[in-house]
């Protein structure tokens, strides 16, 4: 007997990945990378790739933009466009705020204990006492923007440099410059201290690294690097890199610049001892341009973190220079997503980039797949061989990728399209693939059996639609191909591209199309905000689903074809049950249109992405929801039984408290009526035994009774007791005005009705009294 598939009822957010670094400063303390965004600092855990905390403000239109920041792992100091310096503790709480009094923006901050140095565009370095937020010194002497400021590790000295390439040494006790180190011919970009604290090194755009000794203003060594160097970091006494071991008396630095590679230099011998050969960073496109913005060394793990100009953070192990992890600080608009590998171990993401981002599904470490020369638009994974992936691009090509262990390589290219290739799909057997392009052509490609040094051969080509083709799909038996287009139609084709039929009915362009895994049914979603099911046999429309308020960009079958998951331009993901045509749940986490939707093989996780650059993992929480409902039902049954027991034993105070907690207005009414039957004096005693919040609940319940004339008597008695307690101060309700506003009109109506009844009763009494003397008594 075949097990009936369980229908999904709800999905919950498992993880949400957004931009954690959009440019600016990056610092590394313990296992946390502190990364700057427009309005906050993201604390990225390098172990699991998750943002543990965000320090700062939410990004809004009028947000106070962060210029730069610094941290020692205990405190975070941020400078803002508003002219403020803000001090945050490790929990992300704002502790202090003060004005930085620089004329212009702050470019560089340095922190040492409870003292802060700030370098501004006004050529001044200011020293701050963080305890009192007071400026202790204003150090002059630099020219232009002060972009380098560093405290000496064990002396009362600050080194600073501006646009003139001169390094000024300030003694903090005197508050004056003591020495000036001048050998660079352009702006100094970085300054680091050696492990002996007696030397320091500087680098700049003049393509040299200079070694200095404190107190000696003449450069000890000038080492040409033959590239503009953006950053250097000091290395410890003992370390190893491939093919080299440090000497105890050497002074070593690592540098990175416009070529995108890391170099290790022995400054005492003025030579390069190691040059990275496995760089993942694209060199700068022009001489003097930027490829690397930051380089950070982590002493505990002996690792280097390189920050590229496109906001990628790559961590290398110093000894082997193997890439340990790669984090994508900012992804542009997400266009497509697919799972890759056995057990869905990787997630491939296409963004507004030439590179495909391949994430490890558990740690979200990333590698960039480089091959396309223009934006990647679509991805597809083979169902029969999950290690195979297809990609299509604006460069008019289709590429075949193979996952081999932990690396993915492009093994074949198809180059027959004359326009951007917007969609691709594998056949279920992975023997052929299909693609569609802006040139309105549909192509069938043969997938080679050998995946090394192979090519994609085009078997068939057909002009399929009058306008752009948005999506293609292959039936489970590989006999029928489906296409959907901006021309408001979807079409069915044989595997040799003979037209089977046209599906007409949508009022606007058709964004996606999918085959049911079990029935001869096709699913389409459209810009007319609807989803339609079509019969493959007679091409008729079987059902139409409505619910989205904008274009439905993506739709997939799940639960063995019994449910549909859809994603729309309204930022919503909806789950429909086909049999009932009911929208079971709506998922709302995206702030803009959702272009991409991928489901893992066991349908336990859905991944979505869109124009907001946010990647969301949704977990199936149907079983948890059922268990919670079952527990709630059991608890409700027990409490209702307890309530019945209280009523039977005439414990009305306990019964009233329980009925109020269960939010059962009619039970509360019955209890009040029973108390009144025993004598109205007992009502006041019972109500006085309630807590203030319980009395508030009772007041809201009574106002509901008061709307019905049948229950006005108990309602008015309870209101009388509560208002008396209000006068004595025993009852202090919140929002009394609104509660009384709801009660007054009905109370006035009840009193008018009772007054009229009293008048009628008195009139009847008068009439009877008048008639009594004239009545004849019959024997």
Description:
- The protein has 779 residues and is α+β, with helices and mostly antiparallel strands.
- It has a domain at 652-748.
- 16% of the residues lie in helices and 44% in strands.
- A four-stranded antiparallel beta sheet has the order 1-58-57-56, with no helix packed on it. A four-stranded antiparallel beta sheet has the order 2-3-4-5, with no helix packed on it. A four-stranded antiparallel beta sheet has the order 6-7-8-9, with no helix packed on it.
- The protein is flat and about 140 Å long.
- The chain starts with 10 loop residues before the first strand and ends in an 8-residue tail after the last helix.
- Keywords: Nucleus, Repeat, WD repeat.
- WD repeats lie at residues 116-131, 181-222, 248-275, 369-401, 414-455, 462-493, 503-544, 545-586, 587-619.
- It holds the Pfam family WD40.
- One of its GO terms (cellular component) is 90S preribosome.
- This is U3 small nucleolar RNA-associated protein 13 C-terminal domain-containing protein.
Care to count the β-strands?
A: 58
Radius of gyration, in Å, reads 37 Å
Largest β sheet strand count, sense and barrel closure: 4 strands, antiparallel
Which residues form runs of ≥5 with pLDDT under 50? none
The termini sit apart by 91 Å
* Order of the strands making up the biggest sheet: 1-58-57-56
Helix content: 10-25%
Q: Which features does this protein show?
A:
single chain, 779 residues, alpha+beta, four-stranded antiparallel sheet, 44% strand, flat, WD40_PAC1
């Amino acid at each position: 007997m075949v097990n009936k598939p369980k229908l999904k009822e709800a999905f919950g957010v498992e993880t949400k990945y957004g931009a954690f670094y959009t440019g600016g400063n990056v610092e590394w303390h313990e296992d946390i990378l502190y990364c700057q965004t427009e309005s906050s600092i993201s604390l990225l855990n390098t172990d699991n790739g998750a943002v543990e905390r965000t320090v700062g403000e939410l990004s809004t239109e009028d947000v106070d933009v962060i210029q730069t920041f610094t941290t020692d792992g205990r405190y975070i100091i941020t400078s803002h466009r508003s002219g403020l310096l803000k001090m945050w503790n490790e929990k992300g709480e704002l502790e202090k705020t003060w004005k930085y009094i620089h004329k212009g923006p702050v470019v560089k901050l340095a922190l040492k204990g409870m003292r802060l140095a700030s370098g501004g565009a006004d050529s001044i370095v200011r020293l701050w006492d963080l305890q009192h937020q007071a400026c202790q010194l204003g150090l002059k002497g630099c020219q232009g923007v002060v972009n380098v400021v560093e405290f000496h590790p064990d002396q009362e000295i600050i080194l600073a440099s501006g646009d003139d390439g001169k390094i000024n040494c300030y003694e903090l006790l005197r508050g004056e410059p003591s020495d000036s180190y001048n050998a660079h011919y352009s702006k100094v970009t970085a300054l680091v201290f050696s492990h002996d604290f007696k030397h320091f090194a500087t680098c700049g755009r003049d393509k040299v690294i200079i070694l200095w000794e404190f107190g000696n203003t003449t450069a000890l060594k000038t080492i040409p690097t033959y590239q503009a160097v953006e950053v250097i970091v000091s290395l410890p006494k003992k370390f190893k890199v491939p093919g080299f071991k440090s000497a105890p008396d050497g002074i070593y630095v690592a540098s990175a610049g416009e070529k995108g590679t890391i170099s290790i230099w022995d400054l005492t011998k003025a030579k390069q001892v190691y040059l990275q050969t496995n760089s993942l960073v694209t060199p700068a496109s022009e001489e003097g341009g930027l490829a690397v913005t930051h380089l950070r060394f982590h002493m505990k793990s002996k690792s280097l973190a390189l920050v590229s100009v496109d906001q990628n953070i790559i961590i290398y192990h110093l000894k082997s220079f193997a890439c340990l992890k790669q984090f994508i600080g900012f992804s542009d608009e997400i266009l497509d997503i697919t799972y890759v590998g056995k057990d869905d171990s990787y997630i491939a993401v296409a963004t507004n980039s030439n590179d495909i981002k391949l994430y490890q599904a558990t740690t979200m470490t990333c590698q960039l797949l480089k091959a396309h020369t223009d934006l990647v638009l679509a991805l597809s994974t083979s169902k029969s061989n999950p290690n195979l992936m297809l990609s299509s691009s604006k460069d008019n090509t289709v590429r075949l990728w193979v996952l081999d262990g932990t690396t993915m390589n492009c093994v074949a290219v198809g180059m027959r399209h004359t326009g951007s290739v917007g969609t691709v799909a594998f056949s279920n057997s992975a023997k052929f693939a299909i693609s569609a392009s802006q040139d309105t052509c549909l192509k069938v490609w043969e997938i080679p059996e050998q995946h090394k040094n192979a090519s994609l051969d085009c078997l068939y080509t057909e002009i399929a639609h009058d306008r752009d083709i948005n999506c293609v799909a292959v039936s489970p038996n590989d006999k029928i191909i489906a296409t959907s287009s901006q021309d408001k139609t979807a079409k069915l084709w044989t595997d040799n591209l003979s037209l089977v039929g046209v599906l007409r009915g949508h009022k606007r362009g058709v964004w996606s199309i999918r085959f049911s895994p079990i029935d001869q049914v096709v699913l389409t979603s459209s810009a007319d905000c609807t989803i339609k099911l079509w019969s493959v046999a007679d091409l008729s429309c079987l059902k139409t689903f409505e619910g989205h308020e904008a274009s439905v960009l993506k739709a997939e079958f799940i639960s063995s074809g019994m449910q549909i998951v859809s994603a729309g331009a309204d930022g919503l993901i909806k789950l429909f049950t086909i049999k009932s045509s009911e929208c079971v749940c709506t998922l709302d986490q995206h702030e803009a249109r959702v272009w991409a939707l991928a489901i893992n093989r066991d349908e336990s996780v859905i991944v979505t992405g869109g124009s907001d650059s946010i990647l969301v993992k949704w977990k199936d929480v149907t079983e948890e929801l059922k268990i919670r409902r079952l527990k709630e039902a059991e608890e409700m049954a027990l409490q209702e039984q307890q309530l019945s027991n209280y009523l039977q034993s005439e414990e009305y105070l306990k019964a009233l408290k329980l009925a109020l907690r269960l939010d059962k207005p009619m039970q509360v009414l019955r209890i009040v009526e029973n108390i009144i039957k025993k004598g109205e004096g007992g009502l006041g005693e019972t109500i006085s035994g309630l807590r203030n919040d319980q009395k508030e609940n009772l007041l809201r319940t009574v106002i509901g009774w008061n709307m019905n004339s049948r229950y006005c008597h108990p309602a008015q008695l309870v209101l009388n007791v509560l208002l008396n307690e209000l006068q004595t101060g025993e009852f202090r309700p919140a929002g009394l005005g609104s509660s009384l506003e709801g009660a007054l009109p009905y109370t006035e109506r009840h009193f008018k009705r009772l007054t009229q009844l009293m008048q009628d009763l008195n009139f009847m009494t008068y009439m009877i009294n008048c008639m009594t003397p004239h009545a004849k008594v019959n024997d």
